[in-house]
Amino acid sequence: GIQVEQSPPDLILQEGANSTLRCNFSDSVNNLQWFHQNPWGQLINLFYIPSGTKQNGRLSATTVATERYSLLYISSSQTTDSGVYFCAVLYNQGGKLIFGQGTELSVKP
Amino acid sequence: EPEVTQTPSHQVTQMGQEVILRCVPISNHLYFYWYRQILGQKVEFLVSFYNNEISEKSEIFDDQFSVERPDGSNFTLKIRSTKLEDSAMYFCASSSDGYTEAFFGQGTRLTVV
Fold first, then answer.
1. Tens-digit pLDDT profile for residues A4-48
2. CA of B30: how far to CAs of A90, B6, B26, B75, in Å?
3. Residue numbers in A near B44 (CB within 8 A)
4. CB–CB of A94 and B104 under 8 A?
């Protein structure tokens, strides 16, 4: 089956720093989503981005489908950005989202 | 903004008991899903449901699990005889077409003691 790998597994930042999280996938996909899991365990939709670039405030994401990777950029990080960031891919209609292992981000004040 | 809602947010149950986790998907969505996340691990697919039947299920989704859409709004996951290893966060999700963005509920944290 399709493999989804995220890097780095852990990241510690000082408030105000920028970061880039990476998601590699092993096969062509129809859908890619980025999620933020907050300390209460909730999965928050960040981006639906099967290809191209999107921006939402301090966050942006780029997916290069032909090269099978996606990047999530966090600029001017805040302590509230802490948590686990997951990417998930879908490669057939109606099918399951396959999640990566996540990147655990900790932003220190 | 439409959202997926799950109840309860927390459930503690004794081993061997039956539990039912409830979800109200987004109203015009057609595809429904359950996922679970054991503490500290990644989110894993359990089952997808479309047109009133299971469309796909994982190896985890054995005979102890069942899903139902009892009416036009609710989507439930039943675990017949809970085991300690069923302790996890369970997420419900829905999608309009099974192809574009899926939306997740806030999760039910199940603890089996």
1. 999 999 999 999 999 999 999 999 888 999 999 998 899 999 999
2. 16, 17, 9, 11
3. 99
4. no
